[in-house]
Amino acid sequence: MKARVFVKINEYEQLSAHLEKIVDQLKKSKTLLEEINSLKIEEDHILQEWADELKQVEERISQIDETLIEHENE
Predict the structure, then answer these.
(1) pLDDT per position as a tens digit, 1-43
(2) Rounded to an integer, what distance in angstroms lies between the CA atom of residue 27 and that of residue 61?
(3) What is the pTM of this model?
(4) What is the rounded CA–CA span in Å between residue 56 and residue 48?
(5) How many CA atoms lie within 13 A of 7 on its CB side?
């Protein structure tokens, strides 16, 4: 059997108001977390693009270097 808990009306109203604030803050926190996650995904995509471009540059420089070495040895 569950025990009954009695609280004063003003305490109940205060508790209800605090609970409402907590719920609002949780909603805001969830929204902010979703925005941060979205930004992180976008940032990861951009960083991967940069890494791919750097790899291409590195490969091109390596090809140029190999071509120059071949011409020196001729």
Answers:
(1) 677 777 677 788 888 999 999 999 999 999 999 999 999 999 9
(2) 51
(3) 0.63
(4) 12
(5) 9
